[in-house]
Task: structure prediction
Amino acid sequence: MYRGREGMWSWVLHRVAGVGIFIFLVAHIVDTSFVGWSADLYNHTVALYRSSIGRIGEIILIGAVLLHAFNGLRIITIDFVPKATRIQRQLFYVVVIVFLAVFIPGAYYLARAMF
Amino acid sequence: MITDRSVPIVTHIKGAAMQVTLRIMRFDPEKDKKPVMKSYKAEVEPTDRVLDALNYVKWYEDGTLAYRRSCAHGICGSDAVIINGVNRLACKTLIQDVGKTITIEPLAGFKVLKDLIVDFEPFFEQYRSVLPYLINNDPKPIKERLQSPEDREKFDDTTKCILCASCTTSCPIYWANPDYVGPSAIVNAHRFIFDSRDQAAAERLDILNTRSGVWRCRTIFNCTEACPREIEVTRAIEDVKRAILYGES
Ligand code: FES
Result:
């Protein structure tokens, strides 16, 4: 496999997170639309989200959204600030640090609700 | 007659300082269905280049090994290959920088013709598509076309390209979509788009403002890291994107 560095890994993470968020969004639009024709079916899907597996999925979703958002800001910076290409690697580490700083407390808060 | 040589004659090939293992991806279109990895031993100095190790294999171990090289000094762009997972010129990569086990594969994204030789034709096709030459319809001046040092500076970096394809074949987008014009063609378009003596910038920007143009770039930076001439490839691509966006050149 090609041994790309931070830039390549940030792209892989960005893409995986983006596709994951998209799939969730489609599923979510479908399950919200259930409310229009069957209250039981809707209640059932909401109960699924409240289950432990649903909660874990929620934590992963939050992680994906945060990563995609912060790295998105990095990409916008690279696109519009001419000299930013020279510090793209450092910007990636900033993204990782900010991500962890927001994600860890958030995940802890969500995980607590599970018990 | 020279009796005293202050510099000892180094016998680079036989009886050299160390032994390395070369793992080379071989492919013979007449026999093999798929490429196969084969191992060879080569005797080299730590300060030799990977190209010297390839030469050793070809000259002393297996004469059927096929690879390209011409200048052997990093200027013709013939011998870009994947060395230990990254695109490098074999003639510019020292043994001491890559270790004792060296894996060499042909560039990714092109059709392999034989062993380390790939088909460059699509690459040159994309190069030609961006009009990589000076276009100026003004009457010829008596002497040269003058340019200020500041204007020259704008495209200095992109004049360094040797068309080795290291950047283009390091790009995951290019692997997935060979229609993408690729970093190298954009670098060579940049060379003329930002040249104050040239008059076809708008035409080139139109060519690059298409589905297979600059917008394919996802700022992955593999190209910048692969360039043996240290061109800031991604920066050049971003320059072109902004020129299209802001309608300038
Ligand atoms: S042989 Fe010319 S660039 Fe390496």
Observations:
- Residues 18-118 of chain B form a domain with the Ubiquitin-like (UB roll) fold (CATH 3.10.20.30).
